[in-house]
UniProtKB/TrEMBL annotation:
Keywords: Lyase, Pyridoxal phosphate. The keyword Nucleotidyltransferase does not apply. PANTHER family: L-THREONINE DEHYDRATASE CATABOLIC TDCB, THREONINE DEHYDRATASE, MITOCHONDRIAL-RELATED. The keyword Thylakoid does not apply. This is Threonine synthase. It comes from the Bacteria.
Amino acid sequence: MPYSFLSHLECSRTGERLAADVVQGLSPAGAPLLARYDLDGVREAVTPKEIAGREPTLWRYHEVLPVRSPEHVVSLGEGMTPLLRLPRYGRELGLSRLWMKDEGLVPTGTFKARGAAVGVSRAAELGVRGIAMPTNGNAGAAWALYAARAGLSSLVAMPDDAPAITMRECVAAGAELYRVAGLIGDAGKLVAAAAGRRPGVQDVSTLKEPYRIEGKKTMGYEIAEQFGWRLPDVILYPTGGGVGIIGIYKALLEMRELGWVSGPLPRLVAVQATGCAPIVTAFARGARESEPFPDARTVAFGITVPKALGDFLVLDAVYETGGTAIAVTDEELLAAQRELTSHEGTFVCPEGGACFAALKHLRESGWLEGDEDVVVLNTGAGIKYPETVSLDVPLLATTDEIP
């Protein structure tokens, strides 16, 4: 049986089919490309029961991933992160079945490792010699580390106020790193120009190559498997570039076509910060695309994306599942981050904190009734954002007493 049942690539706007076994960027229409699979072949080749006996990494779903040969898989053991029940915090919110998918435990400490693992593996398989990308921090760190693992060069540009730890990860990985006095879009313009001048280097900016989504969609497959191949009622996702929520929705549709899940799809919730909320603004207007968000700024740095290339795909996922889009303040998300940590002992990233802050609003408004299976995606480890927790504690002399 084939290792991958990848069939072709498809323009997300026009449906045009493109070849999958050459390096591709955007479609001729300037839209993201989506990987498509021979799902009839997948259905005949493997069952959920067989998948359960495989190694606990995202590559357990290799039939619906784009890498043709296992020899080209570049892995650091990513995937199968825990799905944790949150009983104490759930009681505080009036949610009897609250869960968290904790992506802080994958390599590099964020869900970005999923996209990097699959994207770098496929790039290397297709003969790419180096990758180049703009980033708000974590994606650049992940891609730089996986590129090092694969023996590829990496060029990374990020806003100057990106988290310092992510810059250090890039430096440690041997990446060619540049800080940019601007936002991620400004970094993207510089990267695109540089990549165009470098033979064998692929611009792997968000959604400008087809395979980052494929790594991210495995979160959807894992959630279904961890629920016994049924689906939760609601999934909340912190949304910047939106690849995670696009990928989860793609996984849901694939699993439904495969017959691995049935029933209504989870309502998908795109969570943003009020300081950068283009998707929320568009959703409130009933729009199919967003407008650039002015003066974008939030402490949840990973979701500071004023205008996402795949905004229409995010909005489609929300509309088609009966979901919603909601924004919270920086004060609310930082408070939720601390509250969750003190209640459940799990230190989430500020982007994850945004989702927990959003839960309060959704419960108070009645959008959540309280008895649903609700899954929150925590997209990274809180320890990567030490600046979000103030350190104001007493200093004792050796002769002092602890009261």
